[in-house]
Request: fold
Amino acid sequence: MDGKKVIESRTIMTEMIMPNDTNPIGNLMGGNLLRWMDIVGGICAGRHCEAVVVTASVDHVSFSKPILNGDVITLEAVVTRAFNTSVEVYVQVFASNVKGKENRRSNHAYFTFVAIDDENKKPIKVPRVIPLSDEEEKRYESAVRRRQVRLILSGRMKPEEATEIKAMFDNI
Ligand SMILES: CC(C)(COP(=O)(O)OP(=O)(O)OC[C@H]1O[C@@H](n2cnc3c(N)ncnc32)[C@H](O)[C@@H]1OP(=O)(O)O)[C@@H](O)C(=O)NCCC(=O)NCCS
Reply:
């Protein structure tokens, strides 16, 4: 399969925060937000890969700005780069009140999804990502370094093998 543009799989999802989504002080529970982020990211990855995908990892997520009962959130997911059988997806969350005011970006995270073959349930090759805008180019370039960090943290890569990260410090 040839490469695919980022826009081809961009996925948007909107939710209104209901009492059942919140903690005892009326803020959206972090776990519920992570679930929606995983869903929107998974749909985006599935569209890009044209395959069933599974979540392999989620990078750092902060919850610094509370999302309140009655708020409306919009989640946007875009692919940043494909590797061999995995694809990195960038998910951003934007919140506002029900009147469309008090707009803020509340959260963001990088997810990694792996495309799975329907029959054998084994990882399969994914199409490459074609970045077009400056922003897409930047995320595409930096994806290699983020991948090396997460593979080190998950014990799948030795720090001395992380050539891209090492290169950042070689000239210091
Ligand atoms: C993700 C999974 C398919 C990887 O299987 P595996 O046998 O380790 O396969 P591989 O070693 O060939 O790795 C496949 C890809 O996953 C990537 N990967 C595996 N673990 C990863 C992690 N923790 N972070 C980032 N990428 C990871 C590998 O880098 C590889 O990517 P690449 O082919 O693009 O280089 C397997 O661990 C799995 O099925 N996990 C459960 C997924 C799931 O159920 N998720 C829902 C959450 S409960």
